[in-house]
Amino acid sequence: MDRIRITGGHKLNGTIPISGAKNAALPLMIAGLLTEETLILDNVPRLADVAQLQRILGNHGVDITAQGKRVGDRAYQGQTLHISAADVIDTTAPYELVSRMRASFWVIAPLLARMHEARVSLPGGCAIGTRPVDLLIMALEQLGADISIDAGYVVAKAPGGLKGNAIDFPKVTVSGTHVALMAATLARGTTVIDNAACEPEVADVAACLNKMGARISGAGTPRIVVEGVDQLHGARHTVLPDRIEAGTYAMAVAMTGGDVQLLGARSELLQSALDVLTQAGVEIAVNGDGIRVARNGAGLRPVTVSTAPFPGFPTDLQAQLMALMVNAEGSSRITETIFENRFMHVQELARFGARISLDGETATIHGVDRLRGAPVMATDLRASVSLVIAGLAAEGETMVNRVYHLDRGFERLEEKLSACGASIQRISD
Ligand code: UD1
Q1: If you count DSSP H runs as helices and E runs as strands, how many of each does the chain have, helices first?
Q2: What does the alpha-carbon distance between residue 116 and residue 251 come to, in Å, rounded to a whole number?
Q3: Is 316 in the pocket of ligand 1 (CB under 6 A)?
Q4: Rounded Cα–Cα distance for residues 405 and 194 (Å)
Q5: Residue 178 Cα: closest atom of ligand 1
Q6: What is the Cβ-side half-sphere exposure of residue 292, based on CA atoms within 13 angstroms?
Q7: Residue 123 Cβ < 6 Å to ligand 1
Q8: pLDDT of residue 298
Q9: For ligand 1, is residue 133 a contact (CB within 6 Å)?
Q10: Contacts of residue 382, Cβ cutoff 8 Å, sequence gap at least 6
Q11: Mean pLDDT for each 10-residue chunk of the chain (429 residues)?
Q12: Burial 168-203 (b: 16+ CB within 10 A, else e)
């Protein structure tokens, strides 16, 4: 299994290109199941999760081809996928595939909407809290699906097709909103989704669905209205830039010091995180090419932050912010409100010499002057990258084990960081 070796203490200077968003690419690929015509997606990141979803969709009979590079394409540009679900040959998503990636459970929505049946294994994914699917099931039931659980599978049927209805989520859920949105596009009549997730990835998926002939309004706000249509058609769509990747590299620069241009990053997608960095004393400048992040000499001020649904501070940047605050001049408080049990990085950060105490959902981070490199291991995607961030600033060598979590969500991480002066290498055993 690959590992990453980091020798800390190098400032980051240069340019980091930001890839297409994993959390938009995955539901967009799944949306390809809604039509028998070809959906073309540009700027799809090359990630293990994308490859895994290709396998899962392939199992349903979806043909996916990745287009090679064309003259003038830059090395960092994402791939173009042609997704063709002309014939859905199997409406079952088996345990062996779904258990590896939680988002693959979402195929239940297009399968049910188009084929009127689906049998999908209950999901696996990152070990962060229980992450149930009750609200996804509730949304599909509201649209008239008959749902039962059989031997670890969710069996969903809608023999006469889905029917538009009101869906009012008791809590904000990105997965629930994606599922409701995809299912409602082909339901008869109007669906109104209340307390919908406002995440930019939801709006990106809705924009793509509208290009495919869906009639969706209000995506990106808490109320989404979908007028069902009989069928969807092919379209071409570019995946929006990854705000979590951008925020992660912004934290890395804040941690090491230096001056980096995040090429293609869009500030409106991560304003809350940029505001927190500004409070911490990091220089942020938005320009035509993206976002420039710099810290030269100044110490880091501690912050108090709670994670929240968009436009609040994203839970997917919580671990990275915690790594940063380990070096702040004073005590910070970070409260996690989205997922229980999303503090597994705390004990690993302690291996660098971090001083963090936990009280329920709140972590208090007492800044220390120096971190020392250590062997570490992470159990989820964002936690893994927080260890990389700490390693970049720690004295001596850090070895990050179990790198496959990083490969799920960060494209060519070690290349992007070493191009800016980090000493970071992948070791393949
Ligand atoms: C998505 C993102 C993930 C991000 C999260 C929150 C993808 C592929 N993943 O995950 O990176 O951290 O949004 O921004 O886009 N919940 C229920 N019942 C349900 C569904 C969810 O109780 O049926 C709860 C969850 O346990 C969690 C909260 O709702 O506490 C939010 O979950 P949700 O927004 O659905 O997260 P994901 O879509 O899984």
Answers
A1: 14, 24
A2: 45
A3: yes
A4: 33
A5: 38
A6: 12
A7: no
A8: 84
A9: yes
A10: 244, 248, 316, 317, 318, 319, 320, 409
A11: 94 97 98 98 95 95 86 74 96 91 94 98 61 91 96 95 98 98 98 98 98 98 98 98 98 98 97 98 96 94 98 98 97 95 92 96 96 91 94 97 89 96 93
A12: ebeebbbbbbbbbbbbbbbbeeebbbebbbbbbbbb
Q: What would the two tokens of residue 47 be?
A: 């990630």
pLDDT of residue 76: 65
Phi, psi of 197 (to 5 degrees): -65, 140
Question: Is the CB–ligand 1 distance for residue 346 below 6 Å?
Answer: no
Query: From atom 13 of ligand 1, which residue's Cα is the shortest distance away?
Result: 174
Domains and CATH numbers, the chain: 3-18+241-427 (3.65.10.10), 22-238 (3.65.10.10)
Q: Tell me which residues are annotated as active site.
A: 126
Pocket test for ligand 1, best of 50, 126, 131, 341 (most atoms within 8 A of CB): 131
Per-residue confidence (pLDDT) for residue 199, from 0 to 100: 98
- Any idea of the CA torsion for 120, 122, 128, 130, to the nearest 10 degrees? 140
The answer to whether 266 and 241 have CB atoms below 8 angstroms apart is: yes
Q: C-alpha angle 247/252/255, rounded to 5°?
A: 125
Q: How far does residue 354's CA lie from ligand 1's centre (Å)? A: 28
Query: Is there an atom of ligand 1 within 6 Å of 318 CB?
Result: no
Residue 313 DSSP one-character state: B
Atom of ligand 1 at shortest range from CA of 315: 12
CA-129 nearest atom, ligand 1: 26
